[in-house]
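Entry 14. Structure prediction run on the chain below.
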Amino acid sequence: MSYTEDYKVLKKIFSSIDDKLSYGSIDIYKKEFDSLAYKLLPGVTKYHCEKHDIEFSSGESYQDDKVGAKDIDFNKEDTEIEENKHFNYFIVMPSGLKKASKLTFLFHGFNEKDWSKYLPWAKSICDTCGHAVILFPIAFHMDRAPKLWSDKRAMFKESIDRKKRYPNIVNSTLSNVAISMRLQEKPQRFMWSGLQSYYDVIDLIELFKKGKVDLIDPNFKFNLFAYSIGGFLAQILKYSNYKNYFSNSKLCLICSGAVFNRLSPVTKFILDSETNISLYYYLVEHIDVFMKKDNMMRHFINEHKEAKLLYEMMNFTRLREDRESYNLKYAKQIYAVTFKKDHVIPSYEIRNALQGAYRNIPINVEEFDFPYEYGHEVPFPYDSKDSDLVDKAYSLVFDKICKFLTIEE
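Output returned:
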């Protein structure tokens, strides 16, 4: 079947998955996961760094009380949101395979609420590479978020109220109002939820290596594949190289690779303009000031490699040479796919970040363009009148992605 046909069928049947779902050449398994890293999040008065055996008082360093997030359940303490602590991830495997020894971890984009976009991607990797694909959700995304945040009626009302509160706001919609209000109120959530996601993936890999997941061979090999904001997570995993687990892992980025302050995320599906301003104010312009007040944030950025890497990725000029040293070190293991009409994460900003300010880093960044309407959020529209062109474009791109990701014997 074609990409567009696979998309439509998988989107329809995926919601009915219990423990296992079979479709054509793939089997999809639903697995439970309990996050231990949620204890990092805003919501308690005492924090403990296990690695250094240090305790901190509340890590709150900034809060915008004018946002109105307390009006409904948006501002429930992050540590109390059960959906973010106990959730499901999915393993997509070649049909009939009992135990996978080759894996690809697939990380999604910002403000994503379901896996529909990624199911055909996972199928292509299974079919072409023979890998199992791990669909693992980032903190407070997919089913790690309360259902209220996706309730169209409630979110439409919140967006209307938000437009009244901020008359000049741009792109406030029912799709992005929940994440926008939460991040505007506490922009440090971006850092802490990113680190929670990082530690969750590390814990998942440890479970695999200990043989705790019956579908995964403990001696597995793996690569990383990330779209959009998921690229931050994938790069931090690769570059921090915890216990040297990632030394031989390849990293493929699609619509991803630029640093935070070179993105344009104000769209009806991602963030509104007020939140973008708040994130820029906190993460790009003044985080060093806030770190002076926030002992826990300062400790993690100074003493934890993964937090420092995330900190470096917020601003193009911040510790640029250090960030570029990782790109250079792993250049042969990285491939980036970009699209000419992507205005959220433009090709030239991906090149700036990955190939370096002086274009002296030999990472392969390949730009594509297609003769149909597309964009960052939907590079391969399943409902396009030009479905034949979309299918052809998808095959072209994923043939190259799969060739790169394939783990040789």
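Residues 355 and 405 are 20 Å apart (CA to CA).
Filed with the rest of this week's runs.
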